[in-house]
Please model this.
Amino acid sequence: MNRVTQVSIEERTVADPTAGPYALTTGPDHALWFTLVHGGRIGRLVPGGEPTSHRLDPDCGPTVITPGPDGALWFTEYRADRIGRITTDGTVTEFALPTPGCGPFGIAAGPDGALWFTETAADRIGRITVDGRVTEFPLPVTGAFPSAITAGDDGGMWFTLNQANAIGRIGMDGEIVLHPLPTEEAAPVGIAAGHDGALWFTEIAAGQIGRITPGGRITEFPLPDRTARPHAVTVDGDGTVWFTEWGGNRVGALTPDGSLTVHDLPTPRSEPHGIAIGPDGALWTALETGALARVTT
Model:
C-alpha cells in the first residue's frame, strides 16, 4: 500500500501577511515563482535562499502563474483584465484583454505553443500566443465562472466551471464539451492532469476530490472533513494527488491505490491556496497569510 502516513512541514515567510501568496509554480530557472494577489507582486524563491519579488500595478490582482513555452512565466491579473509575462530576470510585459471586466483567473500552457486561460466573469476561455495575440471562445452556458485550467494528455485543455457544476474541455479547434458533475452544487475549482490520462479536480463546496477520464467518466472521493473546502490540486511523480484544504488548514494526499490522508499545517488559519511540486522535489503550498509551506514525506 502506497499510503502517505507521515509528512514534515516547514513554513517559510516570503511576504507581509497582507500581501497574500496565492498560487505558485516551478520556473525553468529551478526557482519557485508565486503570485502575491493582494500585494500586486510576483515573488521568486530558490529553496534555501532568500525570497525576492517584482512589483506590478498594486491593484492588478495577480492570481495564477504557470511556465510558458518561451522560457518565461505567465500569469493572470484578475482585477486588471490582463495577462502578464515575466522573464526569469524580472522583465514584465502585460497584455490587455479585449473583454472589459472578464476576470482572468486560471492559466496553463497548451500543446499548441500558446497559453490558455479562463475568464471567470465573461463565460469564455481565452488563448494568448507568446507574442500577445488573444482569441476568446464563448462557453455554451452563462454564469459558469470558469476557474482553473490545465492541459490534458489527450491534446485538449480541461477546466472547471465553478458555478455551472461541470468540468469542461476545449480542443485546439475551439470545440467545447461540458461534463456535469454527479454531486449538485459541488463548485469545482482546481484541476490537474494525472499520469494515467485522467484529470483530477477539487470540489470546494462538496468536500470531495474528483477524477474524470477523457471520455467523461467521473469518480468522486469524499474527504474526511466535508467542510474542508479543497481548493488547489497537483500530482507528484508517483501519481499521488495532493490538494489544499482552504477551510481545514490542511494539505491532503490521495495515492494511486486510493489511500487518502490529510495533514494539519503548523500555523492555524493559514489559508492554503496554490500547490505545486518544487524544484527540490518537495511539495510546496502558498499560504495567504504570507508564507510558503514545504511538505516532504
About this structure: The chain has a mean pLDDT of 97. The two ends are 15 Å apart (CA to CA). The chain has no helices and 28 strands. The CA atoms of residues 109 and 115 lie 4 Å apart.
